[in-house]
Amino acid sequence: MQTNKQACSTFEQIFKQHYRTLCFHAMSLVNDLDASKDIVHDAFLSLWNHWNSVDFSRPILPYLLNLTRNRALNYLEHQKIRHTHMQQHLADDPTYTLSDDSAREELIEQIMERINHLPERCSQVMQLCFIECKKYKEIAEELNISVNTVKTHISLGLKTLREEFPASLLLLILSNPNSQT
Q1: 53-83 pLDDT per residue, tens
Q2: Residues 6 or more apart from 36 whose CB is under 8 A from it?
């Protein structure tokens, strides 16, 4: 049995050695960098909490990969449940149906105005994606940038929009082809 100081030192060494690999593994499953980092941190927290029951005579990486994969799958399942719940909430809540065409138009104009005030390249990507309904690859080719850069711009653009508009309204407006002006 290790002393607490030895355990901390060993844990730190394992963390430094495997953190990036586990982040890449989580990212390949959930495709969200922040969520991937959280998942890996949870895996390491679990390792620390079960330190005395872990068999260190065996390689630790497969154990950590398994922890990471299981947490990533739990995250994806949770996201699926949240999405289903949000869609049900939208369907049940008349506030979000925007049956009033003038209110809907006004909201679309506000969102478009905010998109136009994003940094130039981010604004272009958002318009190509959500207004012209182009695929990431098409946008990347048109703007001569990588698909990952397109994803980054969309992520940043949506983050900015979510700060100003309820996410449920953005989902309703941006996912509805009839809302495109």
Answers
A1: 999 899 999 999 999 999 999 999 998 888 7
A2: 23, 26, 27, 30, 72
